[in-house]
Amino acid sequence: MSKKIFLLITASLLIGLFSSCGKNLGYSVLLWSNSEHEIADGTILKVHIKSNISQVYVVSLPGVKENFEVPLWQLTEPESKSKALKQQKRFSEFEHTYASVKLDGLPIRSDAVNTSKQVYRLREGEVIRCLYRGAGAAVTNGKGNMEGEWLRVLTETGTYGWCFSHNLALFQAEGFDVSAEKQDSSIKMDDLKGENSGDRAIITALISKKWYPESFANMIKVGRIDINRMNPSYGFSFGINLEENAQPDFTGTAVLNTETAGGSWPYTDIVKKAEKEYEFTGSKLKMSIRGANSNTMILQYMEKGRTKQETLIALEEDIDSLIENELARRQTELKRIASAGPVFKSSNYGTIKFNNENSVTWTNYKLLQPSIISNKAIGSVTVTLDYFISNSLKSSYDGVITMHFTGMEEGVNFLYKLTDTGLRLEDASKAPLKDGVVTARSASPMILFFEKK
Questions:
Q1: Element (H or E) spanning 187, and its range?
Q2: Which architecture, in CATH terms, is 23-79?
Q3: What's the confidence (pLDDT) of residue 447?
Q4: I need a labelling partner for 426 at 20 to 30 A (CA). Which of 61, 113, 161, 325 fits?
Q5: Which helix (H) or strand (E) holds 85?
């Protein structure tokens, strides 16, 4: 008995399934040209099935048996054929008419009034479909009414609304592939962007800034100016001199020069592609601007077939002055050490005599050879403060002192501490060093103490 019930239910479901395929939901107007099936907008389609799961209609051309799928948003709601024909007539004035957006953030509103609710914000260069014109409230800019009219529009994501046409560039789609038209439209928009005074002012402001590697800003923030890495020649230049031309034509050669990257790119224009996104026309260089004050730049370029990025920061500080101040600080510290002696003596590790703040004579250091000081070294030493110590070491040490022995290619680093009774040195030749900062002590370091004499 149960088997008969099962067969009965199965048969009923199959009958229901096939009968649903035979039913029609009605007729709809295609609102966005479909390149896959080469059907232009404005075409009336027969609608068979609606799938909310797949978000598609199953449709066919009237008189054609072949069915295909179309996204829900591309069609009007299915209705009788006579009503669909009336809809088609309503859209006829703007048949095949699309628009490219000229202003980033341009709103689509719920009604044809500039104070109505925003339902969508458009991106510059985005393409939308224009459906028909509407009677709406005038739009003003503080000086008077703006030129344009309210248009009923549709986005490629399926959002409907009203948009004022002042910042839209309307064009006729000549084929079924609107994406191709979009590409052509963006080329036309490039010409308009070059004339957009707002964009030109923003780009000119970017050119006027001094752009340096991100590491410079980090050094300034923590107060550790590594003069081996803070090179005034490092940075990015647009290759445009605003002092000679306050209104440049945005043509030049962009140059990037950092510790780890470099390159030059001739270009004929700087074009805004999206909000804070720019391209250098005629090159493969792209620029993204970040930060509340637009003081962070991310450059993207190709190198040996690979995409690379470099982050730069706009700085107001004078780099040469920062370096001069850091050199002066180091000299002051070396004078402090030298004047505390100038002779420091150890019974095991010899005598260190400061001839001046930059010159030392070190004698009788054989116990440090060759583990710390090379056998080739001569006691004539140049002294520098090339590195810094991390905050975790500041309670125990004053800094890092480097001894450059005659006869040695590389200097010998010591953590140092000047005390009331002398100078304490600790071997830092194997201490971890990152970005010019000794971050920790060496494992089992040798500690040397020299008394004042």
A1: helix 178-195
A2: Roll (2.30)
A3: 96
A4: 325
A5: helix 81-91
Look at 172-176, 264-268, 367-371, 440-444 and tell me which has the smallest mean pLDDT: 172-176
More confident residue, 154 or 139: 154
The encoded tokens of residue 88 equal 């088609």
Does the domain made of 96-195 have the CATH classification 2.30.30.40? yes
Any idea how long the chain is? 453
Position 17 pLDDT exceeds 50? no
Rounded mean pLDDT, 432-448: 93
Structure tokens, 392 = 């975790």
List CB contacts of 83: < 8 A, sequence separation 6 or more: 27
Order of all β-strands in the sheet with 437-438: 388-389, 437-438, 433-434
Nearest by Cα to 32 from 75, 2, 64: 75
Other beta carbons within 10 angstroms of residue 27's beta carbon come to 23
Q: Where does CATH 2.30.30.40 sit in the chain?
A: 96-195
Angstrom distance (rounded) from CA 318 to CA 214: 15
Question: What pTM, to 2 d.p., does this model score?
Answer: 0.55
SS3 443: coil
